[in-house]
Amino acid sequence: MHNVPLVLAIAILSSPALGGEEEIYGTWKLASMQRKIVETGQTLDAFGPNPRGYLMYGQAGRMIVMIATSTRAKPESIEKMTDQQRADLFRSMVAYTGTYKFDGKSVEHHVDVSWNEVWAGTSLKLDAVRSGDRLTYTTAPIPFAGDGKISITTLIWERLN
User: Which residue has better confidence, 36 or 11?
Assistant: First the structure.
């Protein structure tokens, strides 16, 4: 009987609930992605009106994300793809993986592999609001990946599992 409090204390202290990560484990689908260009105040659909994307968080502390515009041109084949088509495809997506920390109010992605080497080795901190099966992320004013304009981007994710 004397060991029950000790076992309970160990279970509580080893629970991931203390870090909040369990609140975002799983797979999320991108519902919308808008950005506000700081200089002009203009609000745009960041990757078009129907961006495609998935975000996955694992219990081991790793994450992966891929986002693409819904209007990506499909080249005829890999063999016939031009350098311009490759550049256009590169500009119409974002993808990276790394580790993460979530505290219930913000998430920090520590990027170790990225579609764009400029991001490798950096950290991206996002304000986070979780409401049921929706997760809303807002960036600080940062250069937008597509055109480099300083923007605040809001991403709304819906839980798949």
Answer: 36
